[in-house]
Amino acid sequence: MSFAVIIPARYASTRLPGKLLMEIDGKPMLQWVVDAACSSRASQVWVATDDERIAAAVRHPSRAAAIALMTRADHVSGSDRIAEAVRRLQLPHDAVVVNVQGDEPDLPAALIDQVAQLLLDDANAEMATLSTPIVERDEFLDPNVVKVVADAAGAALYFSRAPIPWNRDTAPSGLTSQTSWPAAQRHLGIYAYRVGALLKLTTLPPSELELIEKLEQLRALQSGMRIRVAQAAQTPGPGVDTPGDLERVRAARLARRA
């Protein structure tokens, strides 16, 4: 298996500025992500950032190697930042790169390997991603939880903030009366790309569905790209978006260490 991991990392954050450098059990949040990426089977790991504070804070866990790659400050999305990074690194168009989010300090390295392998095993796919089963109704109805529906071969059919697939016969009184969601899958924000597909995607204008749902992966679907989806081999820990999320992750890690 040969692939690269690139972690897009910006200092600014709407709900929690500077969160990637906030400490969890003695290390910056971002360093936990770097450690997981470096323990995967990736041949190279990079942090693509526009901030010197982030560049100075991250390091390879086992060798004296620079892993920060400075990028422009005006990127709209993490995908755009990774696209600049792959150009700087001169990665070939058929190379596979995994986009790992910097605010996922409990992401298992096995999932990085899994999403890369999905793409390496499917010659017809240009992207790959993972999902987990939705077990609670509140999660199913929550518009902040992105759902994904795939075909029988594992190709994504649609991503939505809406509760899909919707069981018509088990919701007699509207949304909150739904009692059945056995096929619902929560999309995880980890992607593997073929470099050529990533470069193409980031040159396309936002698509109609992307603008409606505020989901960048819909640009790929509307342009005809095949996105391979599989259920995650492990359930990852929660990401960090708010101060409350950060405290929960800190408490959980301390409890595991106790």
Outline the biggest β-sheet. 7 strands, mixed
Q: What is the count of DSSP helices, taking H or I runs of 4+ residues? A: 9
Superfamily (CATH H level) name: Spore Coat Polysaccharide Biosynthesis Protein SpsA, Chain A
Proper CATH architecture: Alpha-Beta Complex
Distance between the termini: 36 Å
Q: Any idea what the shape is?
A: globular
H/E topology pattern: EEEHEHEHEHEHEEEHHHEH
Strand order of the largest sheet: 5-4-1-6-10-7-11
CATH topology: Spore Coat Polysaccharide Biosynthesis Protein SpsA, Chain A
Poorly predicted spans: none
Topology (SSEs and partners):
Elements: E1 4-9, E2 23-24, E3 27-28, H1 29-38, E4 44-49, H2 52-57, E5 68-70, H3 78-89, E6 96-99, H4 109-121, E7 127-133, H5 137-141, E8 147-150, E9 156-160, E10 185-194, H6 195-201, H7 208-213, H8 217-222, E11 227-231, H9 243-257
Parallel strand pairs: 1-4, 1-6, 4-5, 7-11
Antiparallel strand pairs: 2-3, 6-10, 7-10, 8-9
